[in-house]
Amino acid sequence: MQVATPGPEESAAPVFRYFNVAIADADKAVAATREKVGVTTTTRIEAVRALSAVEIAALHLKTGTVKPA
Fold it and tell me: Which value, in Å, is the radius of gyration of the alpha carbons in the chain?
């Protein structure tokens, strides 16, 4: 799953950060990203799209891994 989160400054224009997550379930991918980044549940994080098996292999992601894109 590819996940995005706005940058840390709420008053400034958003700066999106993308993460590649080797978790198929969108809600679990968002939760894992939230934990990795260390943000609260009030910070908007959303799943962007599912990653294919080929993409996961090319990115060298192991199950449960969260990596910056």
Answer: 12
Give 36-50 pLDDT, tens digit per residue. 988 888 888 889 999
Q: How far apart are CA 8 and CA 18, in angstroms?
A: 13
Cα–Cα nearest to 63, from 24, 33, 34, 5: 24
Task: Provide the domain limits for residue 41.
Answer: 2-68
Strand partners, 2: 20, 49
DSSP conformation letters of the chain: -EEEE--S-SSSPP--EEEEE--SSHHHHHHHHHHHHT--TTS--EEEEPPPHHHHHHTTPPTT-EEE-
| Claim: this prediction has a pTM higher than 0.70 | yes
Number of structural domains found in the chain: 1
